[in-house]
Amino acid sequence: MVFGDLRVGFYSFSCPNAEAIVRDVVQRRFNDNKSINAALLRMHFHDCFVTGCDASLLIDPNPARNKTSEKNAGPNRSVRGFDIIDEAKSALEQACPSTVSCADIISLATRDAVALAGGPTFNVPTGRRDGLASDPALVKLPGPSLSVLEVLKFFTAKGFSLFEMVALMGAGHSVGNVHCSNFRDRLSSFNNGTLDPTMDPSLDAKLVQVCGSSGQPAPNDPSVILDMTTPLAIDTQFLNQIIQKKGILHIDQQLALDPLSRDMVSRFVTDSDTLFQTFANATIKLSTVNVLVGNQGEIRRNCRVFNNPL
């Protein structure tokens, strides 16, 4: 299967065990911590949605040389799972030095994490190269307080349809946590006791207990799980939740309320096969956005550092 200059099985001859090596690392990490599926999904999105899937998100800032990176950008400061990519890269460098890109490791690891979380199984094409720049100023991602139409503009700019957007968010947000700072503006305790009409009152009460109030916010910006029914599984329970006005993030709740998207949410709830297929195809599509191929970029030896940093 070919996707432009990418293809499934790209490393069949140059590093035949590449995909198995990544899968083994992800499996071991998943056995210890089931939440890595959310971490890798988020990493994949945050890398691919900026300058394309080029592993620019993995570069460490270097304060000693006054060098920043995408990790310095606000939306990326809570991204985690970099150690999983490091472990896979180390194993791959031993097996096949300077062969498998960090960008491909992210896509393969995300695919494997999705399957382990009960989501769809699918193949991802490989052959990406790693980028040579990592600029926090370029990190422009849709925020949780935007409307469906505003978020859709981000997705259409990358070539995605509304249907694909709803599938990516509906399945992707069925795992993982979110910090109070991303939704406390919806809570009655931060709005002089006024309930948000789009939030179930019982959910508001639970979240107030965690996040505090405008006069006394909870310290250290605590987090809550997005899917309160099956928080570690990719399934339709999250979509059921937002239909019941139990969406924690504004944008998630709007998916179930906005005339643009509500019928799609309802369809996915009753047709998990279509949700999974659309999510898988959209995730593959996301992994091919603005990739570097051929002689472009480089194959990093260490995913956190350019081979020849300036």
Automatic annotation (TrEMBL):
InterPro entries: Haem_peroxidase, Haem_peroxidase_sf, Peroxidase_pln, Secretory_peroxidase. CDD domains: secretory_peroxidase (cd00693). Binds 1 heme b (iron(II)-protoporphyrin IX) group per subunit. Binds 2 calcium ions per subunit. It is an enzyme of class 1 (oxidoreductase). SUPFAM superfamilies: Heme-dependent peroxidases. The keyword Secreted applies. Keywords: Calcium, Disulfide bond, Heme, Hydrogen peroxide, Iron, Metal-binding, Oxidoreductase, Peroxidase, Secreted. Its EC number is 1.11.1.7. Belongs to the peroxidase family. Classical plant (class III) peroxidase subfamily. Removal of H(2)O(2), oxidation of toxic reductants, biosynthesis and degradation of lignin, suberization, auxin catabolism, response to environmental stresses such as wounding, pathogen attack and oxidative stress. These functions might be dependent on each isozyme/isoform in each plant tissue. This is Peroxidase. It comes from Stylosanthes scabra.
